[in-house]
Amino acid sequence: MGIEVVVEGLTKSFGKQNIWQDVSLTLPAGEVSVMLGPSGTGKTVFLKSVIGLLKPEHGRVLIDGVDMVNSSEREIYETRKVFGLMFQDGALFGSMSLFDNIAFPLREHTRKKETEIRRIVMERMEMVGLVGAEGKLPGEISGGMRKRAGLARALVLDPQIILCDEPDSGLDPVRTAYLSQLLIDLNAQIDATMLIVTHNLDIAATVPDNMGMLFRRRLVTFGPREALLTSEEPVVAQFLGGRREGPIGMSEEKDAATLARELGAGPPPAPRPLVPQLEPSPGLPERRAVARRRERVLAMWHQLPEATRAAIRQSEAAAGGGVGGVAR
Ligand SMILES: Nc1ncnc2c1ncn2[C@@H]1O[C@H](COP(=O)(O)OP(=O)(O)OP(=O)(O)O)[C@@H](O)[C@H]1O
């Protein structure tokens, strides 16, 4: 099963520029979480801080008891092996075939024999639908295939935590829908903890168990997907509605006068209707995260707003389940 990621009071600046401060959240073990936020709010900086590639000035990131901010470089390097990373462009080596790209972490970090490496690489290529493309160079395939190759490479060391930085960037809506399904299928197959950074509203609406949002140097919120999808927090509602009206402006923050004018212009548009979360493809096991999340949500049931509870009941009904006697 995936490992829980505990982030406590994280603050990161570059020189005088503060990126975000006092960010605290827990990525529940084996669940899929999405981090949203307008461009430039520091989502990539957050991912890099979680794996210890960037050093926040304050706070901790705990992975199985190891603090990825303050531990020794050796300990951080060792712990990084539980992560699989998928970068925006796939981050493949241009002169290597897809096979060699995907095999790279195995050759670099393990002493496995070539026959074993071939078995693992082919298994992962099959998971992401790339069988037959082993010999191709990254420059000879489409952007979507490069992303899937990046995902296959992220999977070869059997990660317990997977971080994906804008896996949808540059993909058309159909390929994005396939990718969303692939992420859910992966979670069903390997039960890893997953954090996906994205701007994509369809991924946000259909993939995660939990969502968070960074804005104005703060974590605005983090919680069950239904809490964000029904949120009346102006910045969350604006972002998830893909609207111009709201606190987010072209260069991140809108000035107060414009905001006041908008507020006087009438009630905000209604939120998008809730769509069901994706289920694993037929033939795959159920996601074990679903039952664990149900337990967690029940434990916080009485602190959730009524709109969130109604949305959770709706999600559960669509999935053919039920949140049990407590959740009425
Ligand atoms: N190594 C660095 N040195 C200095 N500033 C940096 C560094 N890395 C990132 N930044 C700054 O941190 C801010 C946040 O960048 P980041 O890439 O994390 O944003 P983002 O939310 O991922 O944006 P996008 O959605 O556009 O990819 C930006 O202003 C960026 O210029």
Gyration radius, in Å:
20 Å
Bound molecules: adenosine-5'-triphosphate
Parts with pLDDT < 50 across at least 5 consecutive residues: none
Count of extended strands: 12
| Name given to the CATH homologous superfamily of the largest domain | P-loop containing nucleotide triphosphate hydrolases
**Taking all residues together, what is the mean pLDDT?**
87
What is the helical fraction, as a range of percent?
25-40%
Number of domains: 2
- The CATH topology name of the largest domain reads Rossmann fold
SS content category: alpha/beta
- Across the major sheet, the strand order is 6-7-8-3-9-10
Organism: Streptomyces yaizuensis
Keywords: ATP-binding, Nucleotide-binding, Transport
Domain ABC transporter: 5-241
Region (Disordered): 262-286
Can you put this structure into words, describing what you see?
InterPro entries: AAA+_ATPase, ABC_transporter-like_ATP-bd, ABC_transporter-like_CS, P-loop_NTPase. One of its GO terms (molecular function) is ATP binding. A 6-stranded mixed beta sheet has the order 6-7-8-3-9-10. Strands 2-1-4-5 form a 4-stranded antiparallel beta sheet, with helices on one face. A two-stranded antiparallel ribbon has the order 11-12. By secondary structure, the chain is of the alpha/beta class. It folds into 2 domains: 5-227, P-loop containing nucleotide triphosphate hydrolases (Rossmann fold, 3-Layer(aba) Sandwich); 231-273, no CATH class. 38% of the residues lie in helices and 20% in strands. It is globular and about 65 Å long. The chain has 12 helices and 12 strands. The mean pLDDT is 87. The longest helix has 18 residues, at 173-190. The protein starts with a strand and ends in a 10-residue tail after the last helix. Helix 3 crosses helix 4, helix 3 packs parallel to helix 5 and helix 4 (114-127) crosses helix 5. The structure holds adenosine-5'-triphosphate. Adenosine-5'-triphosphate (ATP) binds at residues 14, 19, 37, 39-45. Adenosine-5'-triphosphate binds next to helix 1.
